[in-house]
Amino acid sequence: MPNPQLSAVPAAQATKRKNAPRDDEDDDAASDSGSDVSMINVDFDFYNLNEDVDQIAIKRLLRQSLSNDENLVDVHPLADLILAESKRMGAGTSIKTDGEESDPWGLLAAVDIRRCQAEPGLKPFVDYLLSTAPPSTIASILDPSNTSRPAFLFSLRMLNLPLPLVPPLYKMLGSELSEANFTHYMIWGRGYKLEGTEEATGLEMDATVKGNKKKKGGAAGGVGGVPAGKFAYHPEEEMIDARGVAVHNYALKTAKPRDDESFGVEQYGRVVLVETAKLAEAVEAMEEACR
């Protein structure tokens, strides 16, 4: 059942379009319009994380975020730790469309770094991040002797999850962790890189062009152009990045060298360190962007 605290949040709705089957009686109208389109409402409900249901989906989403480096971190104990920490702190939310027993489309969960840093579920993950040579600010936060109290935030979801669902996730987590006194949050995920020479991939629809981006042939801007640069898969991270203490983009360790025949976009890992108060400001900016 939904968490009583979360049930006060109305289910968000998104609509999908699909080609509707045509009945014989609609043949004439269809011939005039070309095709019929029907609307399907999808209800998204918020739930607490469920140890009995969500483990497999969390492991799958962790592998998705690790991308080429999925074999460098054992996601089984990490998924168990995320679920255990959610239960211990009473924090973390999943988004589902077919009841609590269904797989989540996305989730936001926290793990107390100081409490769990030496545990087998988290230590290999921390070691992996440190091996990517993060800036001193991030490396310092991950040092057990540091007096700050940080937490990892795992924002894991399907890429096509509607953006208006994201601010409620952060607001609920902030409320649930209000007495935890975390000083910083470390948000881990992945991004992609565009050189500006790619043909249409669909990803460029979410890319914000900053400054004077150049395309193939040296031309800047232009109709149908794909902007060059590095972009997070989760668009709200741009608002967090702008308020972060540090943003660390790192090359995936096991990714094959790219050439002209490489398929898809180049992916990379990313870590954002943000103070608790600044994350709250970023959530307000997310809400404003969704209005």
Automatic annotation (TrEMBL):
Start and end residues of each stretch annotated as Disordered: 1-34
Gene Ontology cellular-component annotations: nucleus
InterPro entries: BCP1_family
Pfam families recorded: BCCIP
Protein family: Belongs to the BCP1 family.
UniProt name for this protein: Mss4p nuclear export
Species the sequence originates in: Apiotrichum porosum
Lineage, opening ranks: Eukaryota, Fungi, Dikarya, Basidiomycota, Agaricomycotina
